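Appendix B. Raw example, untouched.
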Amino acid sequence: MMPKSQLIQTASGAHRTRLLRRVVSELRDGQPVILEDTQRFILIAAETATDLSLSELEPFAASNLTLLLAAGRAALLGYESHGRPEEPRAFQIPWASISPAVLRGLADPTIPTVLPKGLEIVPTSKLSELMLALVKRAKLLPAVLVAQLSAADDLSRAHGNYLTIAPATDLLLQLEEEPRLKRIAEANLPIKAHCSTRMMIFRNMDDDTENVAIIIGDPKSKAAPLVRLHSACFTGEALGSLRCDCGEQLRDALDKMAAEGAGILIYLPQEGRGIGLSNKLRAYHLQDLGYDTLQANHALGWESDARSFDQAAAILKELDITRIRLLSNNSQKLNQLTKRGIAVQPIP
């Protein structure tokens, strides 16, 4: 059973979780949402904008419409950042230039892009990074259309259209929370590598993603069992893609654990180093044009590696494993596990 301390959440925490899930879902569906701080903003994800969502934004967008792009995408369009390398860029954009097709072209470097006339660089707001973090949470391209609301704007129209109005502080707090995992199901699962294998599913209660622990033998019989953190790779594991060796790494890790008689493979739903399958295929398209892996991710507006391994640390603690030999020398994995209280010996 999951410890009660991991299942109980304060009312304010439960509200923040619900709010974040709602905002992410609505951005993914192309719906506008409103963020409140000392200022108020209405925003739409550029990738999923529709004629309907633009019509809902139009009454608030008379003269202060801004397109927000991640630094890598803006640089590809010829607008390098002069501040922090990862700092977003904001552009004032005329309403007459806006359509769903134009927005998708500005967001997506794999389709033809026509820069609208009258595009002007303007300062970003203090909520710009939060806005892009929200669309990334939805696994969308990090590009957002934003209008700042004035104090005089009547929100009755927003309420009438059932738009979500979210306090920015609550969203920021929730994004920084440790993942809440709940063990959902488990069963014996003999596999080719080893007959004595058990599989457990841990659901992330913040976003409903399911993380898998494949347990070979009795890992607790080892002072520091072998562990691999494996990110999902549909193309490599199911299709045998020649672009990566993820399938081979998965099977090799299981074979090494079987040879020792014990080990844990944690399978994380983080396709494409955390950018999602759709964005991974966009990155492949850019690689066909001559980009390397990191350049392609940056051109899409994503980091070199957008994965988080906090879920893996939570699963290891639930399994009462705090010392491991990790089948990796990835510094991000080492640092995140160590930060969460797991003693790690890397095994390249």
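End of appendix B.
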